[in-house]
Amino acid sequence: MDLFPLWLSLRVAVTATALTLLAGVPLAWALARRRFPGRDLVEVLVVLPLVLPPTVLGYYLLQLLGRQGPVGGLLAAAGLELVFTWWAAVVAAVVGSVALLVKAAQAGFEAVDPRLEQAARTLGRSEWSVFWSVTLPLAWRAVLAGTVLAFCRAMGEFGITLMLAGSIPGRTQTLPLAIYDRVQADRMAEANALALLAVGIVAVLVLGLRRLARLRY
Length: 217
Known about the structure:
The protein has 217 residues and is mainly alpha-helical. It has one domain (4-213): Orthogonal Bundle (MetI-like fold). 78% of the residues lie in helices and 0% in strands. The termini are far apart. The mean pLDDT is 91.
């Protein structure tokens, strides 16, 4: 059995989750603790990937990042190709999963008592120090839950990936795409084996999350 789709999916999911954390946690904190112009619009844009059909998202990303698109044209002029590469699968996974992390982390940050943060500020702590020493330690369960959900979503991303990265065996064919391909080719034994791998990975992650959630602060 060809395990390339599994390794590619893990590579894509890990990379996408890291990027989602870098962008999603600050965004979640800003939505939870700040009021700024366009905040409602940002919240809508964050939630859109959860409610729009994946093929719609994939289509617009393809228009944006393809050779004829505004971003894709700039990348092509610089000699860079994104569409139909594994990095396109990463972009698809980030777009598909970022809302799960942002909404979970935002809920966690909103649950932190602002008076605790204010007490730290009165002791001369900077906003950066308050975040790392007070806010994040109190909200880490929510952030962790969002991270695991985002990773699982990235592992299972299908529609956006198919539109943006394609299903090229040995290049961009992730685990969900490989399962679909095996079913279409009536190779049910391989499809079943790959599906069981996907279920096993997600089950282990969710069980691990439940155990961590029981830990005390």
